[in-house]
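Team,

Forwarding the record for the chain on the shared tracking sheet. I've put the sequence and predicted structure together so nobody has to dig through attachments.
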Amino acid sequence: MRTSLHGDLMRPGYELVKEQIFFRKELRERVLWAIKIRWVFAVLALAGLAVAAPMGLDLPVFPLAAVCAAVLLYNAAFARAARWIEGIDPSEVRPFTLFAHCQISCDLAAVFVAVWLSGGMSSPFLIFALFHIILAGILLPPASTFAYVGAALLLTAVTALAQQLPQLGLPPVSPRLPTCELPGHLGSVVFQYLIFAGAVVFSAFLTTSIRAGLRTKGRNLLRISKELEASNARLIALYEMVKEIGRHSGLKELLDSATRHAANLMGVRACSIKLLDEQKRYLEFAATYGLSEDYLSQGKLDLSKSPINREIIEGKSHVIGRIDEKDYFQYPENIEREGISSMLCLPLRGNNMTLGVFCIYGDRYYLFGEDDVEFFGLMSDLTGIAIERVKWDLTKSWFMAKAAHNLRAPIGAVLSMVKLVRKGYLGPVNDKQAETLERCEVRMGMLADLISDLLRIGKERTEMGKSELRPVAAEEILGKLEPMFRDQALQKGIEMNVETRGSGLWVLADANLLDDLFANLISNAVKYTPPGGTVKVFLGMEGDNQVRFEVADTGIGISKEDLPKLFSEFFRTEAAKELVEEGTGLGLVIVKEILDRLGGKIHVESEVGKGTRMSCLIPASRPA
């Protein structure tokens, strides 16, 4: 059994049903809740019997009191058993189901003894049998519920028959008790029995139907939740793969890392990357994972003798469900010896050309579906870009930007689907389901923010993102941002002061870059300052040749140990994570790179618990 992300997605439906923790929890809670209710009912019943005689109700008080005492006795035994059963793993359903059976069986027996003692079909206690049928319908499978229905109707029929046989000594119902007695004794009993039987059967049917509907919705919600979880895990794992292979400056290390990650993410037996030679006539294994040395010893693959590899190089993807169906390969006997049953091969592309072939190999027939082709295609494209980056000495940021660009669309699609489900457009959802979907939505939103920051960094690091610098009025940029952040500070209960000293504060920059610089620093100050704190923003000249932009706050502060790591990608202090869960750890990276681009500098002063001051010096300019 494969323990991969791919394997989790391919699990059969019954495993999803087994994992419906919500219904296990419901069963566990209700069987323990019934014990508490039973204490209350038994005490109230004894109190009712105590006042029955003064009220003129002719009831067999002592026999009924004995029934209540028996209920209290076996409920004490159930309470003792509950201490043991609470320690059982909630995933073990059988003990709780048996416990529910024991309680419902004992209660029905007690009810029908009370019915027998208080007048049979005319007894006011008969209605309590209906409550236990409903409880069985909620907690137990339909077959068990209707088994209790049959038992209840049988006992009721025996009681009704006993009413017609005086020799059995059935106690008559008190004429002062509220009953449904009708003229004509036999007809009355039959009529009452049919009404009761109809109520019991209808209640059981209605309860089990509602329960089945709730379980169906639960399964659907669980399926959606698991798909979101698996998609999110895949995307995060892919992102980790992107980071991992992005650290390698050597081609061999990068290719080995890519094949290893691809095999693990896709949950397959093996993986390989074959690169084209310079003449584009041969494919040669550049990296493999899970393949034997014998398989690799075949050497170069001649494209003229391998039509399938030739088609892949030309841009066509190939999903082979059964390796042995056709004459696909130049060395089919080698593939059979490796235990390979199915294969997915895609062209490995750079930005401008096909570099080779990326393949994953499965040990089962027809292992790969459309989703696998799409996901592996994204993985293949990212790997191709990384290879080209190393070959041409591209920067790491280009690869990250490409990855983020490809990830944004599926994240957006998943986030839209979650919103549709949560808002009820695809059917009603209850409060617990809505809460779960809302949590998914928040997590996906955080991932979308991360991707947006990566795209922004990638854009600024590439030549395409390096727009022309020209004189920009810094006070105008700050003036546009001030109302937005002032509102945010006001809503959080933070005092915000903005001081602009002087006029004509021109810097050589790009308006968007300067906007990002100011916005990131002010946003961080507001975000990490608790209510009641203060944020101060200053913009003015520093000497004759520099503009100072400074943001000071009374927030959580930064420790001396964390200051050197402050401008590292994805770094967030522990205090920041505790105060605000959302965050990508890229805001200050963007600030630093913008300042580098503008020829500026940043200085940070901070003390834990007292606040932080960030001062930026940007070369001044003259208006155009």
